[in-house]
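Fold this sequence, please.
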Amino acid sequence: MTLLGAMVEGARRFGATTTLDNVKVSQAFAGSGGGRIDLVNGESVTYEGLYKTQVWVRAAVDRITRSMSRLPLKVYRNPDDPAARERVREGPLAELLTRPWQGGSLRPGTPSRLTQAIVYNVLIHGNAVLVKYRTSPGSPVTELLPSSAGYWQVRDSNVGKTYVFSPSVGRHMVFRPEEVVHFMWWAGGAGTWGISPMESLRRTLMVEDATQRLTIASFENGVRTSGAWVTEGKMTKDDIDRLRAQLVDEHGGVDKAFRTLILDSGLKYQEISQTNEESMLIDLRKLAREEVAAAVQVSPPMIGILDRSTFNNIEELHLMEYQDVLDPWATLIEQTFMGELVADEPLMEGEYVEYDLNKVMRGDPNKRMEMLTKAVGGPYLTANEARAKDNLQPLPEGDQLWPPLNTTAAAGMPQ
């Protein structure tokens, strides 16, 4: 069973306490799996299809999704007093985020998979929707069921705004706003539904797909209409058909390229079209990858575009990624959980969620150690603390902090 199937099955277990079968939705919605991008020659592809087929879309989405999924999502108490805040490891909220869905025939949910489901859907569809599952009306939320945002839409009904889930197979289900957690970036208007970054890349990805198909066609067809055979003599239809069959048989396809060609009847080859370099296909593909990176706001070197990067700025770019790219994502998820989950649950009162970015923002270990040593005027780790970092056994006298001999010990430090 897929996550989508689990969401459908879980939603059905809500019964009349959650689904609004008696609500008249203003407009029918048949789930399509999300928006689509038009391609050349009348073809089209869904947003998720772009993720599967466009390498730079996948590289950018995976970079942000996987970087976010490695950040620990922690629960604390006392949000009004950061100095006295307390880490919460047990309770409805902590347990929910530790195991967001129970699994059954699926792999059980983990904090990493929860973050991946949220970030991926927002990057691809512009929205992510989690259904709150309760074992009975009024009981605490025990699961947060994810699904593809391509099957969701916000609709007006006779009871106000509702969330409609329409799978490709089966009847649609309607949820009140308080029965879901909706993640999105503000997209103008009433702010009820986000806009996919893929929308801003419509022309870019159309051109990228066309350049890929043109390149493939140039290899598959071999003898392509890039030139003509000319002669001052006159050729019969039989001569033309024989020459065409001979060219295709002897030189058609990539595996027969660069074979020696012998012509008669004074035939000469005249080029009539541009090469890939002349038509700037390479430059177009480079431009496409940079525009994809810009649309999802990831630094080009972070997805392997190293044209203008240097050894000296890579470390700074990594730090900028967490400060300028991932930190806003962390804020979006934290505040959405607070506003649409924690605020509605009495048993979660006084608690809040926060991603821990400290570990990934520390930068170079040697520079960090040098900075902290200067800040405290001497060693800031005991021998046992240092040995623990290398999984070594502690020493009997290794818990003392020894200052340098040329310094004066501060109050509370060993003489």
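The first strand starts at residue 36 and ends at 38. Confidence is low (pLDDT under 50) at residues 10-32.
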